[in-house]
Each structure stands twice: as structure tokens, then as C-alpha cells.
Amino acid sequence: MSARILQDTAIRYFLEVVRCGSISEAATRLNVTASAISRQISGLESALDTVLFERRSRGMEPSAAGELLAAYAFRNQLETERVHNEIQALNGLGRGEVRIACTAGFAVDLVPRAINQFRQQYPGISFQLDVVIAREVSRRLIEAEADIGLTFSQAPEPHLNVEYRLNAPIMAIMHREHPLADKHSLMLSQLSGYPLGLPSRNILMRTVLDAGFSRKGLPMNIAFTTSSIVALLAFAQAQDCIVFSTEPLVRSYLAANQMVAVPIKDRDMNSLNIELHTLAGRNLPRAVAVFMEQLKTLLTEEQ
């Protein structure tokens, strides 16, 4: 494959169409005409003698060849960024950027705390944190929009490495004045009669909770449902209500707001894992690699 082809403007246009799934949306983002993008992609297909997209009514989907080229081009883009950052940082971690994608729970306490600790030692490193749903974390890693991903355990993704895994039992979170707050541990049966604040149904923790209560035939007194962990915590702080989280994600928040996390003994509540992901086969920029090691250390200490 010609190196000149892979460095051409057409690759940049091609990757934007992969990201957007639409030539018109890619044109808007790149501030060029749709016809210019179409010409570049047609030229690229001609040069490579293959079809790169399947044209469908709902947009553009990469063909098998397109997916292969996109994976190669994304990695090439990341390697270029890494070399640039390494050159800038030859005298130490004076400059650099770390891009993190995570689901909502990690943004309450754990990730901001890790960033704060890191910047105390390396103040020249900047961070970008995007809070998204789990499948979007994977997409951003694969498409070079993030360096590190944090989610709860998901189905294996062939393009991603699990750099670290930590068992994260679900705990009952409540104000320290709640009648159950002084218990060393609880069963779901003890929680069933109290008002509960639950994550939305599209969130993995909700699936685990629903299954746990259902398996034991226990009713759920649902007082509040939301996709926001921050809203759940605020609700539990103000109301005589129990919500759920894994303790490492909210440790500092609980201490600052007179709340407690009580372990739940039911086996189902021990099934979640925190996972730290990176793109498979990628050479990480030094700032990213050093921050990731610190994040691993912090997670180990949380355990």
C-alpha cells in the first residue's frame, strides 16, 4: 500500500465519513463541500481498487475493506500524535494531553481525584474527560478520540485491551442518619421495604439490581429513577432513600456529604468489575502511560 495514499487529504475525509456515517455531516464538520468529499473518496477507492463504503438509505457504512483501512488509519493518526507529544516532552512530562472517556459513575469522584493527584506532580499535562455511555467509550477508543476508557465490565471487544480489572461490589448508599446506616452488611430483603433510587434501565448496574431482586421474588419500592449518578446521590442525601453504587467511585463524595456505603451480601451484587481499556496494539504517549499507571495504583489502593 502506498504511503503517499495514506497521507493524502482523502484519508482525512474518509475517516470523518467513518465517524459521522454521512458525507453531508462530514462536510459540515470539515467545512468543505459534500462533492469534494465524494470526489476524494472515489479517488481513494480507485487508487486502492476496492469499495470502501456500502451506500445505504440510512447513511454510509464501511465495507470490510473500509473497516480495515479505518483501523490502520486511526492507528497511524495516533502514532503521529504520540511522536509529536514525545518530541515535546523530551525533557520530562512538561507538556502533553490525556483524553479519557468514561461512564457517568467514574466522573463523580474517582477520575477527577486521579487527575488532581497527577497534575500536582505534572502541572503541564492537560486532560479532556468525556462522560458517555459504555458503547461510546469503546467507539472513542477505537476511532482515536480517547486514550483511556473506564467502564464496568462489558462483552469482550477485539480491538481493545483490558489494562486493569477491579472487582467492584454494588453497595447500598444512604445518609448516615438512615435506619440501616449502622449495619455492617445488608441483604436485598432488608432493602426491599425502603424507598429506592435506581439507575435507568439502560445502565448495567440497573440490570444487575433488577435481576437480584427478581431472583429472590422481592418487590422494589422505586421512588426515583435517573441516568445521573449525581442526581441519585443528591436524592439519597436529602431523602430517607437508598441508592446504589460501587464504593471506590464515590468514596470522597460520601465522606464530604455525611453518607455511608454498606456492603450487600447477596452474591449477585458482587458481579461487577471496573475495567480500564486502551486501544489494542497502540504505543501510548508517555503522559498517557504514566497517568494510566497512577490510575492503576489508585484503583488498587481503593480495593
TrEMBL record:
**Protein name in UniProt:** LysR family transcriptional regulator
Give an example GO cellular component term for this record. cytosol
Checking SUPFAM superfamilies in the record gives:
Periplasmic binding protein-like II, Winged helix' DNA-binding domain
**Which parts of the sequence belong to the HTH lysR-type domain?**
11-63
Write down the species: Proteobacteria bacterium 228
Name the family the entry cites: Belongs to the LysR transcriptional regulatory family.
Recorded hits in PANTHER family, A to Z, give: HTH-TYPE TRANSCRIPTIONAL REGULATOR YBHD, NITROGEN ASSIMILATION TRANSCRIPTIONAL ACTIVATOR-RELATED
GO terms (molecular function) for this protein are: DNA binding; DNA-binding transcription factor activity
Give the keywords, sorted.
DNA-binding, Transcription, Transcription regulation
